[in-house]
């Protein structure tokens, strides 16, 4: 069965039961050498592609983990998915994602 991540805050379907809040935190470490290059690039301007890729990887991993957490708790997906502003922290990137698990009423819990 395919699982669903939905960014809407409310599903307008009486057959949907909204469950508990699910959260995931992912922190990826940056490569020290690339981090130094990005800091130099920050001085002269331009895109910081290393951090862009690192943030994208962290967001993708966090969403996949949120989906897995929902499945492991018997939900069909997650509603109200939010991605907190990814933060570049000392030597890494932190991403927090959250939402509420949901399932259709009348279906057997898995």
Structural account:
Helices cover 34% and strands 36% of the residues. It is α+β, with helices and mostly antiparallel strands and 110 residues long. The protein has a single domain (4-104), classed as Translation Initiation Factor IF3.
Our count of helices gives: 2
Helix content: 25-40%
Secondary-structure element pattern, one letter each = EEHHEEE
Instruction: State the low-pLDDT regions, or none.
Output: none
Computed Rg: 18 Å
How many individual domains? 1
Dominant shape: elongated
Total strands: the figure is 5
Average pLDDT level:
82
CATH topology tier name: Translation Initiation Factor IF3
Q: Name the structural class.
A: alpha+beta
Bin the strand percentage. Answer: 35-45%
CATH C-level name:
Alpha Beta
Can you tell me the CATH architecture?
2-Layer Sandwich
Can you identify the CATH superfamily?
Answer: Hypothetical protein apc22750. Chain B
Which sheet architecture does the biggest sheet show?
Answer: 5 strands, mixed
Termini separation = 11 Å
Short key terms for the protein model shown above:
single chain, 110 residues, alpha+beta, Translation Initiation Factor IF3, five-stranded mixed sheet, 5 strands, elongated
Layout of strands and helices, then pairs:
Blueprint: E1 4-6, E2 16-29, H1 32-44, H2 49-72, E3 77-83, E4 87-89, E5 92-104
Parallel strand pairs: 1-3
Antiparallel strand pairs: 2-5, 3-5, 4-5
Question: TL;DR?
Answer:
34% of the residues lie in helices and 36% in strands.
